[in-house]
Amino acid sequence: MVTRPMQYLGLGLALLASDLCLLLLTLNCLSWMNILHMDLTFMEQAAETIFAKQWQLYFQTATVAWLVLVLISAVKSDDKVGVSSDENKEEMKEKKCSNGAAIMKSISIVVLTLLTPHVLKPHRHRHPILRRSLIIGPQSTLVINNQHQDGGGDLDSVNTNAEATVTSSVTRQELVFSVDNMTCGGCGSHVRNLVEANLNQQQQEQSSSSSMSIDKVAVDWRAGVLSIYGGHLKEFVDQSVIIEILKKEGYPTSFLYVN
Prior knowledge:
This protein is of the alpha+beta class. The protein is 62% helix and 11% strand. Helix 1 runs parallel beside helix 5, helix 4 runs antiparallel to helix 5 and helix 10 (185-205) packs across helix 12 (239-248).
């Protein structure tokens, strides 16, 4: 039988091993549907730290160890039930089925949590919620650019996926806006939703030849700053539309600079 603390331990390890992906996905969905607005900056920074320092490898190992322990305890529990089954076969059979269902449920939740980022990663450009719930490091793009500029090295040894090849030729930019009247993390979350929804709409309206890509939208509500990260933003993002949308929602906005 998997105890409640054991279930929480497995779920916690799986969340840490997956860069908090499922937790971020849940909270971002609630925010997108205007059910719950939270400042997720601290949580996103924690996930980025886990990713940058590759701590998720240790958490993944611990999660696998947890799964093995649960399976071993399940086998031992079945053995105990088998020994005492002569006394009351029906009752023991029901108990065995109940324990097995609880164990399978716990294992399924942990495995689903662990696999969430791998399932979402190929589809992260389909919706802003998926993009903001995944931690994607910029290291591969920087390395590929350096290899390309230096003219040395085997590109195939650095390139781990087809998308990295595409991003190597894209100019990364940052658009920075000043946003007033943000008084809490909920305001920042609302501004982020508005901007990402509009950017998604702009991408859909543009032709397939457009090379614009959106990596991340970040909002610092304390400093009153909105940052959009991506490729070829200056050429394709309609800044005036973003400013007008935020102004209508009560957030006077002005464009500061492109980096």
